């Protein structure tokens, strides 16, 4: 049978044979830190931009198709073939919506008396 003291000596590794494992662990740790601090925020920003563009595109498609559907509905049911009247109603709705959004805007850099960019 083997000596337990000799088995304990065999299980211990020398510092010289352990350095490749330590170097690989250190490199892995540095790469993980760089990924957490630099790449993950970039990935988050790119995801937000891509999903924002997709949602904006879908919203624009829904708005255009709704306007087309409303013009056709008004043309067939309400104005009896007079497309100009349907276009005027839908255009008026868009103008009123634009006026509402214009009134809700905020201005930056405007001082009293309406001067832009000048400071007292």
Helix/strand layout:
Blueprint: H1 4-11, H2 15-78, H3 83-103
Task: Describe the protein.
The protein has one domain. The protein contains 3 helices and no strands. Helix 2 packs across helix 3. The chain is elongated and about 95 Å long. 1% of the residues are buried.
Briefly say what this structure is.
It contains 3 helices and no strands. It has 120 residues and is an all-alpha fold.
DSSP summary: helix tally: 3
Average of per-residue pLDDT values: 84
Structural class: mainly alpha
Q: Compute the CA-based radius of gyration.
A: 35 Å
> How do the helices and strands follow one another from N- to C-terminus?
HHH
Q: What kind of sheet is the major sheet?
A: none
DSSP summary, beta strand count: 0
Uncertain stretches of 5 or more adjacent residues: none
Helix content: over 70%
Proportion in β-strands = under 5%
Distance between the termini: 96 Å
Question: Which outline best applies?
Answer: elongated
The structural domain count equals: 1
